[in-house]
């Protein structure tokens, strides 16, 4: 039903903004841009997902446009604009299933000089990490990330009202998401993962059920950020009240049911120049109201996450970045004491190191990028090498790989190890 | 005897005046450089322009970039803020690049990626790397700090002051020296040639067209050429306006995320 609604919406939007196609092009008509893309991801490891040979085979058409209200009216005076972006997808992984993926459909306006708002379907991002998210608890699509779609698809849109307030001494973002939108995480059909109910890495055999919080006012998500520049340094404080966007807690073990437990997060970050590069530090305290004492073995404990990052431009179009993240489970003793002998367990501390290498060649038309995650405590690693070639302004060819290793099947990256693939994308932009 | 006295007086005058003449000339070259810097990067309190870049590589393949550039001077001859809003190519449309240029060594740079709603901070180490894949470098766009080079006036006979500039430190610089031709009438640098250690010309920038915009001489067409790898970029400015009333708040995260409609349309 949701899909149908989206299609109707998109057709409406298209009909409003596409007289260009009807031949009535005028200077005031908004431009339509987008791309056509073919994606392929070949699997390098066997598992029990739906298909053996590939985990990505699709074509997509993205259309995007922006309409500004003009003339002597209130909407124009308030700088009102409508943003639209949507993808028509033919997914061969599901035997040519067609779908429409609405990425953005929102209205942005400036109701007061000190305030901007964006209402509707939109992408939300904040925080200082590079592929590591502490205070950014907005929905992500990890299936796109691990199969090799463009980075754009790592961010999943939310239906939200965002108020950006700019009083004199600091800035503030207030976000209200009426209906919680979880992360897109492996389910076994396209990507395999560690399923505790199966006692190992599972594919289509996974039969667990994930329940979303009921659609009630009390289950709305609120997030806020207050930020301020101190010279070249940017300081921020964050707040989130909602649910853990990844299913990590059990609702009913006998019924193989997981759920998104309640989560409150309080954090802060700083970013600015240091040692000829850019440094960032971020911390977030995750409070788990459903297991506030930490003694319920089936529900995630409260946590603290720390992040330190550094990026430097080495010259000659070479850029290096490093990050260190520490995750600490709080009330760890209570958690250990509550565990049953047969339970899989987490370590108190998890250390993650990352490295990003970006190098451009041939007048920046060829980009080599390698991003690596490594956890010395989990003994797992994930590296994403890729090469992007801008053949012309319109044609772009990207090839890369998702290479994952893990000593154990249970760890955060290790449980994804049977999803190794090489991917390639060819895009024509217009 | 009279001739000898005259001669001695002449020599005496030269000895007394020469250091004065010398310092006057030294002052002059610094003054020229200062004026050229102001003329090329600091016209008006603020300014805006549409920019079209045509990048041609060594094999004749052409790429285009179109963006709008907003510039605000916060301290004459020193601190400036730039806001660059991309229109083309379409895969970077609505992307914003922002720079706070400082008189110190490092500028602050930000990049806004609309598809991810992501404000990224960019390490500003290398000012001599290509700007958006063109043959212009970051430093050509925002201006090279005049204090990092020594300046020597090597010729002032024709319509131009010909100035040789040698970097005080060779760290992070691909050339040994460069020569700039500054128009005597309006102090506009009309040409810059960059040479390597062997004295070989490796790159050049040339103003092809200068127009009078609201009383400010303005380069509206220029070309950067790479002699080593061959290839060039033509940069054309249109709709140039000065003193339009840009304010400090435009150069903040607020307007990275939400482009100021009034200025970028």
Question: How is this structure best described in words?
Answer:
The complex is a heterodimer of chains A (about 425) and B (about 260). By secondary structure, chain A is mainly beta. Chain A has one domain: Beta Barrel (Porin), CATH 2.40.160. Chain A is about 10% helix and about 50% strand. Chain A has helices spanning about 1-15, 75, 140-145, 330-340; strands at about 30-45, 55-70, 80-90, 95-110, 115-120, 160-165, 170-175, 195, 200, 210, 220-230, 235-245, 250, 255-260, 260-275, 275-285, 305-315, 320-330, 350-360, 365-375, 380-390, 395-405, 420-430. Chain A starts with a helix and ends with a strand. Chain B is an alpha+beta fold. Chain B has four helices and 13 strands. Chain B has helices spanning about 1-40, 140, 255, 260-265; strands at about 45-55, 60-75, 80-90, 95-100, 110-115, 120, 150-155, 160-165, 175-185, 190-195, 200-215, 215-225, 230-240. Chain B has a 13-stranded antiparallel beta sheet. The longest helix of chain B is centred in the N-terminal third of the chain and has 40 residues, at about 1-40. The interface between A and B is large, with 54 and 42 residues.
